[in-house]
Amino acid sequence: MHLAFISLFLYFERRIMIKTVKRTYRFRIYPNPSQKELIEKTLGCCCQVYNDFLSMCIESHEADKNYSIKKYDLIKLLPEYKETFPYLKEVDSIALQQTVIHLYDAYVNFFRHNAEFPKFKKKKNDYGYTTMNIKNSIRFVADDIQIPKVGRVKVKAHRHLPESFKFTMVSVSRSGKYYYVSLLGEEEYFDYGEYIKESLDPNNSIGLDFSLKHLFVDSNGNHLDMPTYYQDSLTKLAKEQRKLSHMKKNSSHYQKQLLRVKNLHEHIANQRKDFLHKASRKLANTYDYVFVENLDLKEMSERRDKLKLGISIFDLGYGTFLNYLKYKLEWLNKKLVKVDKFFPSSQLCSCCNYRKSSLTLNQRSWTCPICGFKHDRDYNAAINIKKEGIRMILNPSN
Ligand SMILES: [Zn+2]
């Protein structure tokens, strides 16, 4: 009864500790030809403003070395400047203002922090412009996103924004042939603060054994595989790449096919990320500790080539998965713990601790000669990783 009361108290205390974290969400957008033209025009205008204002800063500094430019003096020059180049009035005025502010920051940083002197921008390069979300001027409408001046642009929202996410700045950018919109803002998360030690339970944990066949096998005997739709995409990519290799280089068919292959690559990368995000989120929400082996992925990849294991751990995204898992756990003040890479997780019997040193890499299962338990190699290893992880938490000195 008393314990229940304490945990209820802790629960409410925790609820109060909501912190905010800065986040950026980036989505690909599909502007139509006239929208594309306007975006390009805005990028061009911002480039011009940046370069001309940078020249002005340099000139005024050369004229009077003691004069330091003020941000609002620079911004105040904009209306007059626009009169000289009336076409500037056709693009998002906030974007031009933000360009001046960026330039001012870069220029001042040079003097204050010995940062690099701002470079003149080139129109050809990939870059973006920033505008502001004022009174919901930027918002999602069905499958589109409303952008000031540009209007409703088709957007590929591959993930839902968290309800607590609020954004003020939005940047529209071009990278190669693709256009993107990035929403910069803040979202809330629960901070468990000073209750970390009391609230983390080593027994509410899971061990993961990296497996060549699956993404991982866990200490509950479950395994996770990359989804079949991902495998299907890989098959499709191989097919399209084969087609490409038979085409005459630089012909129009070749260019079209090249674009198709590039798009498919990006699609696959997004599918993989999406899957790994969901899988890591699930573990982070469920467990206080996740125990894994401290694998040297680079070394393993080299060893894979030698052993001709034929499948890359990078293809399976295990490294990315661990990164996602680590920061998702950290957000909840939980922990990813790596056990020593020399810990013999596969060789130990998880029932009686007998060590079978003669176990080879190809042996997928083995029977313990002492207790007679028949082990699946990966499942047994995952249990040992969990046991070792709990031991490390409870006896950190040993
Ligand atoms: Zn045994």
Please supply descriptive tags for the structure shown above:
398 residues, alpha+beta, 7-stranded antiparallel beta sheet, 12 helices, 20% strand, binds zinc ion
Detailed description of the structure:
The chain has 398 residues and is of the alpha+beta class. It has 2 domains: 21-188, no CATH class; 204-394, no CATH class. 46% of the residues lie in helices and 20% in strands. It has helices at residues 2-16, 33-63, 71-76, 78-84, 93-113, 196-199, 228-245, 252-286, 297-307, 313-316, 318-331, 377-394; strands at 18-30, 128-132, 139-141, 144-147, 151-156, 166-175, 178-190, 205-210, 216-218, 223-224, 289-293, 335-339, 365-367, 374-376. A hairpin with a 5-residue loop joins β8 and β9. It is elongated, with a radius of gyration of 28 Å. Residues 349, 351-352, 354, 368, 370-371, 373 line the site of zinc ion.
Topology summary:
Elements: H1 2-16, E1 18-30, H2 33-63, H3 71-76, H4 78-84, H5 93-113, E2 128-132, E3 139-141, E4 144-147, E5 151-156, E6 166-175, E7 178-190, H6 196-199, E8 205-210, E9 216-218, E10 223-224, H7 228-245, H8 252-286, E11 289-293, H9 297-307, H10 313-316, H11 318-331, E12 335-339, E13 365-367, E14 374-376, H12 377-394
Parallel strand pairs: 8-11, 11-12
Antiparallel strand pairs: 1-5, 1-7, 2-6, 3-4, 4-5, 6-7, 8-9, 9-10, 13-14
Bound molecules: zinc ion.
